[in-house]
Amino acid sequence: MDEGLSYMSKLFIKGKGQEKPKTGGNVVSRGLVEGQITIDFMLSIIMALIFFIIILNSAYSRLQDVRDIFVKLDAIHVSKKLVSGINDLYLLDHSSQKNITLPVTLYGGVDYTIAIYPRLIILTYNDGNIHEYSQRILTKDINGSLNGLVINPGTVLISNENETIYIKNI
Known about the structure:
By secondary structure, the chain is α+β, with helices and mostly antiparallel strands. 39% of the residues lie in helices and 25% in strands. It has a four-stranded antiparallel sheet with strand order 4-3-2-5, covered by helices on one side. A three-stranded antiparallel sheet has the order 1-6-7, covered by helices on one side.
């Protein structure tokens, strides 16, 4: 009856109270050798670490996506603030002026530049990739805008003099 069974099966069937056969290692419950438990434990730990690395990588990717969205929203806000100021002065009295303060950087410390063309502004920022956001303005009469008037972040003075808009950094 015992002839078709493996050595480990015979060991398991013998049960407690019997003499332990010589296996080269201590036998623990269910007929497993101590070294095998250690290997099984290590494999379980490795699998758990791989699972957590995948989860953390996914979470980090989502955080980067959220950060990119915040930078884009900030770029839209800054450009709309400038466009609103230019359009307001264009529609108001022909001898008015206005100060607009633009942030030094976008969300997360991302640098940006603004170029103003006739009827268009383009905000460009680089967060690892170059992105552009453009917005239309009402007037084409902006002094110095034919080749692209570049303004720096900070306080900007916008003035309307005889239906021509002048923009300069203060």
